[in-house]
Amino acid sequence: METAAADLFRGTDFDRIFHPENIAVIGVSPKGNMFGTGIMNSIIAVGYEGGIFPVNPKGGEYAGRKIYPGVGEIPVPIDFAVIAVPAQHVPGALEECRLKGVAGVEILSSGFSELGTEAGRRLEEEIRDIAAKGIRVVGPNCFGIYCPRSGLTLLPGPDLSRKSGPVGFLSQSGGMSIDFAHIGKWMGIGFSKVVSFGNGADLRETELLAYFGDDPETRVIALYLEGVDDGREFLSVLKEVAAKKPVVINKGGLSEAGSRAVASHTASMGGSARIWESAIRQSGAVQVGDLWEMAEACLAFSLIPHRVYRNITVAGGGGALGVSACDTASEFGLTLPPLDPDITEAILEVLPKPGSSAKNPIDAANPFVGPDAYREIFLNAAKQPGIDIQFLIQLVYHYKSLSLALGVPKVKDVVPYRELAEEMEGAASRTGKPIVLVLPNIKQGVESLDVEEMNRDMRTVFLEKGIPVYDDIRNALRAVGHVSRYCSRRAAPGS
Known about the structure:
By secondary structure, the chain is an alpha/beta fold. The protein has 17 helices and 18 strands. The protein has helices at about 15-20, 35-45, 90-100, 120-130, 175-185, 205-215, 230-240, 255-265, 275-285, 290-305, 320-330, 340-350, 370-380, 400-405, 415-430, 450-465, 475-490, and strands at about 20-25, 50-55, 60, 65, 80-85, 105, 135-140, 145, 165-170, 190-195, 220-225, 245-250, 285-290, 310-315, 360-365, 385-395, 435-440, 470. The strands form four sheets. The chain has a six-stranded mixed sheet with strand order 8-10-9-11-12-13, with helices on both faces. The protein is elongated.
């Protein structure tokens, strides 16, 4: 579907950029001691199946591959190229790629406008001039592109997942791009594409945002921004895109010190915190404070239906955690309504006694409540009129004591987490009320590595069932609150 934002990238062959059949890597050393060699190794290791052609004017061979003296001498068409050579050699390499008919390049090299020198600015202007003649550029001063489906990866990123997903991430910072990709891998977020665009001499936040807005592989968009090239145009595109799909923004450089830092990082200007917060809110996008909050929001947007959430239930062990949930929920527009007497009575029948409570929050008292009991708790609690979503808090680290008492070597061997995941998936399906799992863990020492292993496996199993998992009840409530506020703004008159 054509949109006004789509006019920004009309004529750009993004398919050749993100899904190239052949790649040239410029700056590969036969000795293996150059950045280009590192990114080529990473692309090979992650599993890219297309043609990879190393380039170095000195020629030679690396890892059984011929090193070509120039891109023009490669005997096949090249869709995408990686440039990793000293800054002064970048314009010449880029021009050679343009003459070869390359659709796009990523320039990993630094030494441009971020230096704040006239020489650096002139070099970046040369890049911009060449790009204007018919080649798209990501960078310079960036970590490049990560596209799990095609096998492109960031520098360094041989250990990133090949599992695709709905989240697209744009970042001015290379470090933020690789950090977020790894956080996403741990949390269970699947990426459609990640782009670290650095100084943004050519392709940058506004055009890439417009493309992600029309990209059918991307259903949730996340951005780390330090500054924008054209604020008015960016906000116009942001509003258009946020009306179609969630856009989650972490804006860096909002403090005076942060603004100075981003100026030397990517040659950007930070801007006023108040102005940015107002602009993002008016656009309908979601603002977050850091990468972890961004990941938590993206996980919720990826796995739970996009609708307004108001009333919730919280169930699990630990009365104090339930109290904390009550205190925290209102901060994010959520409430824990009391349950009707007949529902309370039905839940009490399956709860262990004494010490449990069938109010909302529902305190199971005993951390070893079985999957069947939790199924009945959630099926009954969902009958309360107005309930939108349910939270399960599992203090599974208590099973460590049980495993020691029983003489079982690994704690996960006494935790029925697979059965619990099955029951929670079934309860969510039967009631139409999404379920969110919270897995706090206070056992952090070397002696409790099996608890960490158990939590990891439990997280994996629940994520496979489409149930988001968080380490803290506050983070879980905040993530759902982001989804709710986004949907509320979209539904507001005039939005």
